[in-house]
Write a structure and sequence with these properties.
It contains 15 helices and 21 strands. With 439 residues, the protein is α/β, with parallel strands linked by helices. Helix 10 runs parallel beside helix 13. The longest helix has 25 residues. The radius of gyration is 27 Å and the shape is elongated. The protein starts with a helix and ends with a strand. Bound molecules: zinc ion. The site of zinc ion has 5 residues, from loops.
Length: 439
């Protein structure tokens, strides 16, 4: 992920770098500790660090790097006071954390889950289905607005399709990523396999997801709220209370339609973990996934994952990461300020754009600010700009470019040139974007 971000940030830098004055115109970690699941047998859990580094992207770099740094740290000399970071790490590992996860939503039940989480002031993680995100976009947005994490749980959850062919599985991963990104603006790398990875994922699935930068999270506490329909709240709570405790718990719950009993059990589940001294957190890219080991025998017989299939997923994932980084950079961009004598035109991020190195603004805003006017000839698809009594600009057909808000946009330098106004000075950086014009 780090590397994908870096690639994306480089893309942003290159993109910004293009804008010049002239161009305006134109672990095997503690497996024993994590060994905890009801559904999967005692022996299937492992940590993701178990898998070898993958050829495309160093996924999981965040915590793997941390682990390496910890290993590389020179041992404190005898009598030497341990450095602060070591103490901080120790304090961190002492804090017991529970990650509540809700699968298969969003649905009406998600709203009640969100209400309860808000009351308790705790964060959780929602592994959503793409098709449900498209049906309940406002609930998906609410998950993000209220500070929770969102993860991909495939598009339709149909086991036969997902595990019958990797190509279909990958299609669903991509489709769901798109649905989540387009609905919430969040590009997630968190993923949970329907039914868990055990007996469903082979090493090829793990490798492909890893190469594409996804973090696959199974669980180590199964509430068994979906073993059949309508498992009573009391039984869900009893199952949770009977589950083995560990310093990190990933609790599997469901918030899809029909899981009213899970919602009902939630306050008592929260109370239980609080009484055991757990802090509640959402899963982030920095949280090491709890994963089941690939089973010796899968439930499915299918062809092996191919290199082109992996490549397709990797390319999709990198493209979405770049897109998301660019969108974030654009959203965080400073105001664009145009100066002409004492007059100023201030355009917020989103009110101006950059295409092929040229700053673009609304033709109407620019024209009216300099004291001109716009004439629209809708029947003939013509847009004319008048300045000091003359028609200075006329656009038609392909010459008319619109922003995603439907405004007619023009490159600022080229448009001003038509008005007989020149740029005398400009500053264009990540912090400041200002243009001074002749009067
Ligand atoms: Zn599920």
């Amino acid at each position: 992920m780090r590397r994908m971000l870096r690639v994306a940030i480089c893309a942003v830098m290159m993109w910004v770098g293009l804008i010049e004055l002239g161009s305006f115109a134109g672990d095997q970690s503690n497996a024993a500790m994590e060994r905890e699941t009801v559904q999967a047998s005692e022996s299937v859990l492992t940590s993701v660090a178990h898998y070898e580094a993958k050829p495309f992207l160093a996924a999981h770099a965040s915590y793997e790097t941390k682990q390496q740094l910890a290993k590389d740290k020179p041992a404190a000399a005898a009598g030497e006071k341990p450095s602060e970071p070591v103490l901080a790490e120790k304090a961190e590992t002492k804090q017991k954390t529970v990650y509540l996860t809700f699968d298969d939503g969003p649905s009406k039940n998600t709203e009640q889950v969100l209400d309860l989480l808000k009351q308790e002031d705790i964060s959780a993680t929602f592994f959503v289905l793409g098709e449900h995100v498209l049906k309940q976009p406002n609930i998906a947005k609410r998950i993000i607005a209220e500070g929770h994490a969102i993860g991909n749980h495939t598009f339709d959850h149909k086991y036969e399709r997902l595990y019958g062919s990797f190509a279909e599985f990958a299609e669903q991963v991509m489709k769901t990523d798109k649905a989540i990104y387009q609905t919430t603006g969040v590009r997630t790398i968190l993923f949970r396999a329907p039914g868990g990875t055990h007996t469903n994922f082979d090493q090829g699935y793990f490798d492909a997801m890893d190469a594409a930068g996804y973090q696959v999270h199974d669980w180590n506490v199964d509430s068994r709220d979906s073993k059949q329909q309508g498992v009573p709240a009391s039984e869900i709570l009893t199952t949770i209370q009977g589950s083995k405790l560990a310093s990190k718990l990933n609790v599997l719950l469901h918030d899809s339609a029909g899981h009213e009993e899970s919602v009902k059990a939630l306050p008592a589940i929260i109370k239980y973990y609080k009484s055991k001294g757990y802090a509640f957190a959402k899963i982030t890219d920095e949280v090491k996934p709890i994963q089941f080991k690939p089973a010796d025998k899968l439930k499915w017989s299918r062809a092996s994952v191919t290199k082109p299939e992996i490549k397709k997923l990797v390319q999709f994932s990198e493209k979405l990461a770049r897109e998301s980084a660019l969108a974030q950079a654009a959203a965080n961009a400073p105001d664009l300020i145009l100066h002409r004598g004492e007059e100023m035109l201030v355009l917020k991020a989103g009110e101006y754009g950059v295409t092929n190195g040229a700053i673009e603004v609304s033709l109407r805003k620019l024209t009216e600010w300099v004291g001109g006017s716009i004439l629209l000839d809708v029947d003939n698809g013509l847009i004319d700009a008048y300045y000091e009594g003359n028609r200075v600009l006329s656009l038609t057909g392909d010459e008319i470019h619109t922003s995603d808000k439907g405004q007619v946009i023009v490159p600022v330098r080229a448009a001003l040139h038509k008005f007989g106004i020149q740029i005398t000075k400009y500053v264009y950086s990540d912090q400041q974007r200002e243009i001074w014009l002749t009067e």
